[in-house]
Amino acid sequence: MGMSQSRQRKKTTPPLRPDLLFKEIPAEVLRKDVARIRESMGEGEVYSNMRMLVETMLVIREELDRKGAGIQRLTSIIWGSKTESFATVCRQAKDAGNLLRPKEKHEKPKGHGRNAVEDYPKATRILVPLEGKASGEPCPHCPNGKIYPQKEPATLLRITGVAPFRATVYELERRRCSLCGEVFTAPAPIGVGEEKYGPSVAALLGLLRYGAGLPMNRIERLQLDMGNPLPVSTQWEILFKAAGLLAPAHAELTRQAAQGQVLFNDDTVMRILEKVPFPKEGRKAVYTSAILSRTVDHRIALFITGHNHAGENLEAVLKHRAEGLTAPIQMCDALAANTVGEAGELNTILAHCLAHARRRFVEVENRFPEEVEHLLKGLREVYRNDARAKRESMDPTNRLTFHQRESGPIMAGLETWLREQVEGGKVEPNSGLGQAITYMRKHWVPLTLFLREPGAPLDNNLCEATLKRAIMHRKNSLFYRSATGARAGDTFMSLIHSAELNGVEPFEYLIELLTHSEDVERDPAKWMPWCYPIPPDLA
Question: How many domains in the chain?
Answer without folding.
Answer: 3
